[in-house]
């Protein structure tokens, strides 16, 4: 082996990597991103779960119980209710994850050693269920000698605590994010590499028509993928669809459009198909880790939660789990719908503007 030639090749590769900014970014940014996300953002000990309180007793003892629960840091109050039914409605809409019910005869129940407090929990997320169980183990002084647990947990939507019930709806979003962004980004760049894009631009078709028409077939592919996952989830794992099926597809279309426009924007920046795949990775990694698919959203620091709100997968997961598992409808979760529409409009506008500049 000639060491001089080997050294020359070594230097050439280093210089090539230095010139390729995307590869250089992957070498440096990906490890840093993983370190920060796993070390700072990912936290399996849930804190500050949004909670609703229905204190029907309204006395000093019940207020003390509520304050003790809040002092644990597991829940944070975001809503007040008068009845358990109102709390259940808030749970179904996804406004809260935990509801605390203190009945009017709270003190008498406590003195008689009976169940005195109910914790209602959105069981569609098994991690939230576990946090609620820990909250229910909080001791109440007057019930210390009682054999009955003073705080009971009532789990809704997934009382068997099957992880598939939580995972399968989320998989629809993960697969659509991975495939739609990648397909679109690569497809546009491939046309440019083959020299076909300039020929298409030379036709009377406008740039907006060209870009929209280019991505529409992938929207159909996304709906086919959604149907396959829904059917397999129902057949293999008995994952229910408690809400409207057509609303499930509307939510899927919203995510597909958001991802397709994001792919278009990437395609205006990438110089080759390989670069497009590399840039897609920068979107896919934070989407998986921060959206609430793998790790609990409520356990992340506030700054990371603000960042995660910019990801379309975050809003889709709330939509799909709300519709499929809790039977909610789109009007009750209009904020998530609006977020996806705004993201799509913004990405499409940026993509068209950048596309025009590149061809000029």
What do you see in this structure?
This protein is an alpha/beta fold. The protein folds into two domains: 3-42 and 162-354, no CATH class; 49-146, D-Maltodextrin-Binding Protein, domain 2 (3-Layer(aba) Sandwich), CATH 3.40.190. Helices cover 66% and strands 8% of the residues. The protein is built from 14 helices and five strands. A five-stranded mixed beta sheet has the order 2-1-3-4-5, sandwiched between helices. Helix 7 packs antiparallel against helix 9 and helix 7 (163-194) runs antiparallel to helix 13 (312-326). The longest helix is centred in the middle third of the chain and has 32 residues, at 163-194. The radius of gyration is 25 Å and the shape is elongated. The mean pLDDT is 83. It holds the Pfam family ABC2_membrane_3. It is found in: Cell inner membrane; Cell membrane. Belongs to the ABC-2 integral membrane protein family. InterPro entries: ABC-2_transporter_component (IPR051449), ABC2_TM (IPR013525), ABC2_TM_bact-type (IPR047817), ABC_2_transport (IPR000412). This is Transport permease protein.
């Amino acid at each position: 082996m000639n060491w001089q030639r080997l050294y020359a090749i070594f230097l050439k590769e280093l210089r090539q990597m230095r010139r390729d900014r995307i590869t250089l970014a992957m070498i440096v940014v990906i490890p840093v991103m993983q370190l920060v996300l796993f070390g700072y953002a990912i936290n399996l000990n849930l804190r500050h779960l949004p909670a609703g309180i229905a204190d029907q007793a309204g006395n000093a003892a019940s207020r003390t119980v509520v304050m003790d629960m809040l002092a644990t840091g597991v829940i944070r109050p975001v809503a007040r209710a008068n009845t358990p039914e109102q709390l259940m409605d808030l749970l179904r809409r996804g406004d809260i994850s935990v509801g605390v019910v203190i009945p009017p005869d709270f003190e008498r129940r406590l003195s008689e050693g009976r169940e005195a407090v109910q914790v209602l929990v959105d069981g569609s997320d098994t991690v939230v269920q576990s946090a609620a169980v820990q909250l229910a183990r909080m001791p109440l002084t007057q019930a210390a000698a009682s054999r009955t647990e003073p705080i009971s947990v009532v789990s809704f939507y997934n009382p068997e605590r099957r992880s598939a019930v939580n995972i399968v709806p989320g998989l629809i979003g993960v697969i659509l994010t991975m495939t739609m962004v990648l397909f679109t980004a690569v497809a546009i760049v491939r046309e440019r590499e083959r020299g076909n894009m300039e020929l298409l631009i030379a036709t009377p078709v406008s740039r907006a028509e060209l870009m929209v028409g280019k991505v529409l077939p992938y929207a159909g592919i996304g709906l086919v993928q959604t149907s396959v996952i829904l059917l397999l989830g129902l057949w293999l794992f008995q994952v229910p669809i408690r809400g409207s099926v057509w609303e499930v597809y509307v939510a899927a279309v919203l995510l597909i459009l958001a991802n397709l426009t994001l792919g278009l924007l990437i395609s205006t920046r990438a110089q080759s198909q390989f670069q497009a795949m590399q840039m897609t990775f920068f979107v896919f990694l934070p989407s998986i880790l921060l959206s609430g698919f793998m790790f609990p959203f409520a356990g992340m620091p506030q700054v990371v939660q603000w960042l995660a709100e910019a990801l379309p997968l975050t809003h889709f997961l709330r939509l799909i789990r709300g519709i499929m598992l809790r039977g909610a409808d789109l009007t009750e979760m209009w904020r998530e719908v609006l977020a996806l529409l705004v993201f799509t409009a913004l990405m499409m506008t940026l993509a068209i503007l950048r596309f025009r500049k590149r061809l000029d």
